[in-house]
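ok new one. same drill as before - structure tokens go in, u give me an amino acid for every spot. 277 of them this time. try not to just spam alanines like last time pls lmao
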């Protein structure tokens, strides 16, 4: 018999729903939830591109902006290997800077990451140990941009509500990260992670990423019209520093026919027209 809870006020401050305590009898296996969430948030379409406007706000309310174009291409059909190319447009001090990732998924595999700094005409390899550091001075991390591999964590379904699967994720290699665990609120319809809370060893939350808006984006896949639920605005908050960063995504396009050669080192210094448009 299902045990019924009272009204649960979601931390998003948007939904107040009657939830079911515990994991729920009708929930799919947690591995299925995580796999579908990983696909929805990172692997929709064969490729994708768009423009991101980032607003960084510190504790005193001072703001800085970054704008960049990004291309992403899946390089296998297993929601694993991917390539990313990020080309910075604004402000002038970061214009033409490039961040490129060749993502590798699997136990013991590290992503290949490059950063081109035009002011120094320098290409720098980003070490695996740096993936949990700030992305261009924002409250998002390098790993937030290309995603964290599901195999890096152990997953536990804590609760099923009317709207969300609530999943706790614990790193298998805790020495490699700064968090003890994180809890994801995964939308039961779209499987997009709508809120992620990161916790320290004392179970103290110190970092939160929230999706603020989702929109349907139309595309063509194998000759058929498809619609991808797509995050168009998200916010990362540092609860320790009091800062936050908002990312707004525009001009999103899926299945553009991006080729592998666009994601090579030769384009770090001379970005392809596909990412500059």
């Amino acid at each position: 018999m299902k045990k019924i809870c009272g009204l649960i006020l979601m931390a998003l401050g948007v939904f107040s729903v009657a939830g079911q305590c515990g994991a729920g009898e009708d929930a799919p296996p947690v591995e299925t939830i995580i796999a579908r969430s990983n696909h929805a948030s990172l692997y929709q379409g064969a490729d994708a591109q768009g423009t991101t406007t980032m607003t960084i706000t510190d504790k005193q309310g001072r703001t800085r902006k970054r704008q960049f174009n990004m291309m992403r291409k899946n390089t296998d059909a297993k929601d694993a290997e991917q390539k990313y190319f990020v080309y910075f447009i604004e402000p002038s001090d970061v214009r033409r800077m490039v961040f490129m990732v060749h993502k590798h998924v699997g136990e013991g595999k590290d992503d290949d990451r490059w950063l081109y700094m035009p002011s120094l005409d320098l290409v720098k390899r980003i070490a695996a140990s740096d993936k949990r550091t700030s992305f261009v001075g924002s409250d998002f991390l390098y790993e937030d941009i290309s995603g964290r591999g599901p195999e890096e964590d152990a997953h536990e379904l804590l609760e099923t509500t009317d709207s969300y699967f609530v999943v706790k994720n614990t790193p298998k290699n805790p020495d490699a990260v700064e968090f003890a665990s994180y809890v994801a609120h995964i939308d039961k319809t779209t499987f997009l992670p709508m809120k992620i809370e990161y916790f320290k060893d004392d179970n103290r939350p110190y970092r939160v990423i929230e999706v603020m808006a989702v929109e349907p984006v139309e595309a063509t896949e194998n000759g058929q019209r498809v619609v991808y639920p797509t995050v168009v605005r998200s916010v990362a908050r540092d609860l320790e520093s009091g800062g936050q960063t908002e990312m707004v995504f525009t001009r999103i396009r899926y299945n553009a026919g991006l080729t592998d050669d666009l994601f090579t080192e030769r384009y770090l210094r001379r970005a392809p027209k596909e990412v500059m448009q």
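The longest strand covers residues 205-221. and btw The chain has a mean pLDDT of 90.
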